[in-house]
Each structure stands twice: as C-alpha cells, then as structure tokens.
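Aim 2, interim progress. The first record below pairs a target sequence with its structure tokens.
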Amino acid sequence: MTTTSDKQISVLIVDDHPMVREGMRSMLQLPEINVIGEASSGMDALKLTQKLKPDIVLMDIRMPDMDGIEALQAIKKAQLHSQVIMVTTYQNTAYLLRALAAGASGFVLKDISRQKLLETIKSVAAGISRVDRTFLQRVLQDLSAPNTEPSSTISDLVEPLTPREMDVLRLLVEGLTNQAIAYALGIKVGTVKGYVQTILEKLNATDRTQAAVKALRMGLVD
C-alpha cells in the first residue's frame, strides 16, 4: 500500500445508494485521496477490489447480492491487501462485532465528519485500526447490560498482567497490528505475538476483539 505523505491513498467507495456514493466522493475530494472507483453491491466490491487493488475500501453493510460483511470476508479470503473500513447508518452491536471478527480495519457511522473520515482513512492506511469511539462505548454498555455475560473485574484475571503486557494491551485496544505494536515498543513481531497470546490467556479471551472489550470493561485501559 502507498501510505507515505507524498503519495495519494487510493479509495474504493461501496454503497448501494448513488446519493451516498456521490456524497462520500465529494467529501474525499482532497489532494491526499484518490477515489479510484465505486461499487453498488458486495459482489461488485469484491470484483473491483481484485481489479483496482485500492489501499482502502469504504464498505457499506446492508447491500443486495452480497452484504458488506460477506464482501469483507471474501476480500480477506482472497488475501487481497486492501484494508476495509465499514461505513453504516446502523448502530448495531452485532454488526460491529461481526465486522471486527471478519477482519475490518475500521468501523464508522455515516454521520461522520469529513475530518474524522479523513483521519480514519489515514490511520487505517498506516496500519492502525479505527472504530467510532462513541459507538464503541455504547457497544460496551450493551455488553454490560442485564441478561448478558456478567461484567468482569480486575480480580477476575487468571493472573495479573506484567507492565510490558499492559503496554502491549494498551496498543492492542487502540487497534494496532502486531507489526505496529512491535515498531512502537521497539521489539520483535514474534515477541509481540507471544505477549498477545499470554494476554488472551490471562483475560480468558478467545481473540483480540474480546480481549479489547474485556480490558475496557475491567478498567485496565481508558
């Protein structure tokens, strides 16, 4: 991907509503962004991602033929290098968790400002995942609501996290990849993988997303 400051970030816009696509294209008429294509369905998104190889795919969720999350899964299965940011109107907990589990690098709502959208695109292009923070907080509240899994506390940890594990956890919650965490901490990627595995075990989490959610709910990180 081209992410350096003197290179444009190529973007594919995917939404089944022409007015939304036009609006997003207008928002992204910026020197650092190059909108290289548009698609109106998940199937078209997959085909154009294979053909155009954009740095970023801005993907709607609810679409005909193949929805955005299915298209995301297909893009990841095809081992395409484009990063996918889900863009939706719906503040739906299931959508967020499904998207992150499928490999989305970002998740934003359609009322996002131009500046926030640009910041999200730049962050994701640089390897840093971004999720709408207000929505994430609401999701965490939903997960803590009655009739769901009881809230966890720090005392529920299998074993306390070491200072270095806490460093890794903070960056993991911010959405950084193992490579980005390794760079930030000045350690090897393999070492980061080891820390992440230990963190999952100590938090009794099955994946990075669940670990991030538990860490926030426990108050381990802000």
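The second target in this work package is listed in the same format:
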Amino acid sequence: MNIRRSVAALSLCAALGVAAAPAASAEDGPAGRSAGLYGTKDPKFDGVWRQSLALLAQDAVGVTPAKSAIDWLAGQQCADGGFPAYRADTTKACDPKKGEFTDATSAAVQALAALGGRADAVEKGIGWLKRHQNEDGGWGMNPGGPSDANSTSAVIGAFAATGQDPAKGGEDGKDSEDGEGGKDGHGGKSPYDALLGLQLGCAAKADERGAFAYTAAKGEPVANELATASAALAIQGKGFVFETVGKDKGAGPKPLRCEDGDSKGGAGKGGAGTPKEAAEAALAHLSRVMSDTGSHLKSAMPGAKDQPDFGGTADAVVALAAGEHSAAAGKPLQWLQSKDSGAVAWAKGDPGALAKLVLAAHAAGANPRDFGGADLVQQLNATGPKPEAAAPDSGADAEGDSDGKGEEKKSDGGGIGGVWWTVGVCAVAGVGIGFLLSGRKRQQL
C-alpha cells in the first residue's frame, strides 16, 4: 500500500509508572544507536512513536528512509497486530493487556502505509484497532481504557491513511460523501461521535467554547489545548499526512454560534452538529488562544514554568493548514521559525521533535530546509541511518551513520499533517515520555 500523507499524547508513563531511563546502551550500534532506530535516547517510552513520525516526515519531503529504519518499525509489531511503545526483545511475546498501545499502533500504521511494501503489517494493525474500539466509538490509550481525544484522533488518522472512511469507524473502505459522520462504527457509534462528545459547547465559558477535553471519564470535560489540536485535525478526516491544497482564501475559522442564553449549541455535548462545524470551532478556539499568548500554545504541565509548548504549537499549525486557514496557520508558524522562540534549539537531536516541525512547515507551505535558517531535514536525517535517497534540495550531504551522499528522489508534493500530538510528560511518573503523549497528560492534570 503506497498511500501517502496522513494528539496529544501517547502517555505511556501512566500505564507503566516509570520514568525515562538514560541513553541506549553502547551495544545498540553506532553512537549508541540501535540498528535502524532514530535517536540515541532510551526508546522505552517513545521508540515506535518517534520512529513513525521521523519516517513520515522524511517521506513527506522526498527523502527515502533507510530500509533498516523501516524494518525496525515493522519488527516492533506484536503477533496480534498491535504495537507497544518499544520492544527491547522482539523474540518475546507482547502482553496484549498492557503492552500494546493505541497511539503507537496508529502512528506505525500511518508510517508503514505511507512508505508502502508492508501491506500485511498495515492490515494487521488496522485489524487490531478495529477489535479494540469502545462502545462510544472511540479508543483509549490502552485496550478497554476510557476513550480519549488523542487516541481516537490517532486512529482516525490510521483509517484515513489506509483509505477507510473514519466516519464509519473503519468498517469498510468506502469514502464518505457528506462528511457528516456516520453511525456504522462499533456499537452503532463512529469515532466522530466519540470526538463530538468531548467538545465543549455553548454551555461552557466563552473562552473555552469549541475546545476539546482529553477525556470525559473523570466528570465534567475540561478544555485541553493539545487534545483540541489533535481532534481538530482528526475530525476533518485527516491524519499525520494529507494532501495540501496550496493557496487558500486565508479566511479565519468559524467559532460556534451561541446566542445569548444558549446553553446547548448544536447536537449533544459537542455544541456542533457536524464534524465540519466541530473542526471549525476547535480551530477558532486554538487561534484565539494563540493570539493571546504571542502566537503559540503554552505548556500546561503541572508545576511547569510559563513556557511555550513547541510540539503543541506545531500540531495547531498542522490542523489549521488542514482546514485551509493559511493566514491563521502562518502566525504560529512564523513564531516557530523565529530564532527568539527557541523551537529549533528545542528540537535539536530529537527525531520526534524535528519531525513535528518538518510536518508543520510542510503542511503550511513553508520550507523545512530553511526553517529560521536551519535545515530541519538534514538534522532529522542525521538522527538515524543514512537515507536510501534524498531530494536534491534536502541537503543531500546530510548523513546518518556514515559518510556519503544520498541519491536524488523527487517529492510528490503531498502535504503533511501532524496531530498530533506533543509527547512527553506523564503525571504518574512526572517525567516526559514521548512527544505526542506528553501533551495530553500535561493539560489534563
């Protein structure tokens, strides 16, 4: 399947209750890197996640990843089709009750589908996701866990990347014509139903209307910017990779229409009657929040200083670009590119973070090879095995493990979107874990 282009937060800490360990051991390969793996930090909590994002980002800009990198990712799959955060010993069977994760599986499916040649792995992954859909139409981080916006959004991206209609919960491969969402998913509910149930409507405070909650499992939904960025992309029926439209009219997103005294808004808890309306309201909320904070999202990690959330901001850029709101996406993108923001320094040496910035730049029509003066593609390539081939303007002298130049490969010009999703911190361990995951727990708690 050579399908091209498809939140916040694969928070594995909460499930494992452990803090991140130091860098990988020397036996893993050159510069402490395990064969085929991107990055040298311990992959225990984010190996599959960062590998998937890195491969998608490279593919999006015309770089052909090394076969060893693709093999590494495919080799992490469990026998039942699910993916864990990381398998140190792939000869040992996975624990299906706690060792496999929705976010990791969804990200891996999107990457393997985009790269092609791994149809069996992709089909097994999709099958695993379908088997673990909740009755409300959504997915939790772990099988059977309460549905959350980030995990549900990641699955929608996997369905979209494999040509299946997310509105039907992946039950068939037919495309939805009206984009209004369906009732044909598990238990009569679709993934869109689950997301709409997590959106704050007209009964919420004015400055929270249109935002999404991470989950409703602990009482009243609470606005979460990272969940909002993930859901705003997914409810458009898109994943980490999607075809961009080029120039758009630059119109701003439309907020919820709430009349005085209106406490209901649209249908149900969401306050929006259709996925399209829900996406517009979420994008309007993100734009409003970022306009009040200097064109970026702020970190909401408990106890964190007043500091920017670079990954969450990149996710917001992607979601806005997917909604064809170039002007609204341009402001946070320019902030990320500015040297004063510190985004490039934040991402240095981190394949997941670099991939997020590459995806944001690509989705919004910027050049990731000249991102505030930095070549993000070259930096990303250098965190993993040498690519098989690189596009001519990619800084082809960028290297992975050895010297030499990659051959040229033309990009198909497809756009990329990345929910996605920031990774990193978990309330249980109090430590960052993987870039997507971080986001969700940070704002939820």
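The chain has 15 helices and two strands. This observation will shape the mutagenesis plan for the next reporting period.
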